[in-house]
């Protein structure tokens, strides 16, 4: 097989790159042999845009070596799916923290100077509390010690559940972050988690709330010990498709001049930790006849328990006189169940290794923004600009041109200032990795920036936006 590997390297014009994960040589040999046995056309498709040969090895490593990346093979497959073609640019990581009987272990990271995604396993060492667990961005924080940025240097944070293995009681999660300053390779930081919502569900109803239940008659109300006025339950009960056991209990106008919508929650739901929302629009606004856009300008929400049953109410300022002007929409929200929240202190140190990057000096202006530089990586594009009025360039469509004639339209990431007096950064993410040697130009709106020999040529205006 070594001769065949060298032949494939020559065919693609690439050296073999070391895989970023520890690997079982025999298992990976079988996977690589299968790839090499494919027809040349299939191999070239797999290696589109000259993604390094390590992609083959990494995919095998992620799928076959559970000890390197995940305790359970099922989660190894979930991680492989999450990384996809970006696997060659990921790094293996180590680091654990244990609290409240939950172990958090970081296993991998994918990053460049602006965008970071850390993958971590959470294992319940004492029970089975994680199958329906959710970690929201408000409960986690990836802090990186970035030099030259504002405190924390974080623009936006997010989290995503990737899989759960019931045999090992292990949950796989990804934690995302866009940086508000360009990060150096080897940047140190910490993954913080303080709350794991063990029983949590999001939902959205399939249809709008049943508007035919609304009349101009006032419904009965009661005042809670906390002082809020709510509807008496059971006045207009109805099922709600797609609402995860939530039922409509009462809906109508009350003497306080508000439209109240009272929901009955399923058994075990915690009304004080749940959150629902529906939009109540103005029909006259929808039809262009004036009027307010929405009645939600002063919405109120309250959760309470009555006779052992949990309820959640949403209300807006609308009275019977508004009956013919109201448009109800579906409801969406989240429910957390009593006794399932796990609060602790998990702090896992991380050291981030970046994918390859190239910084290209730029000049010229777009609108009020002066172009300073462009940072390219296989993961995405970041533009560095300055502007006297902080307008930035993140709102413009960006396209990337490749040597084979392909035009890519990266997904807009995030945009914002770098520190108090720093430049503005605008980020776009590639949907699949791109070989930097194949990029021949980048357009920002109608402004075209040709690239060659590691630098930018003279820019010019396009007559139309690229398709």
Q: What is the name of the CATH topology of the largest domain?
A: Immunoglobulin-like
Through-space gap between termini: 43 Å
Average pLDDT, all residues? 84
Q: How many domains would you count in the coordinates? A: 4
Report the sheet-strand fraction: 35-45%
CATH C-level of the largest domain: Mainly Beta
Structure annotation, total helices: 7
Number of DSSP strand runs = 31
**Protein structure class:** mainly beta
State the share of residues found in helices, binned by percent. Answer: 10-25%
Q: Report the principal-axis shape.
A: globular
Return Rg in Å. Answer: 27 Å
What is the name of the CATH architecture of the largest domain? Sandwich
Uncertain spans: 12-28, 41-54, 62-71
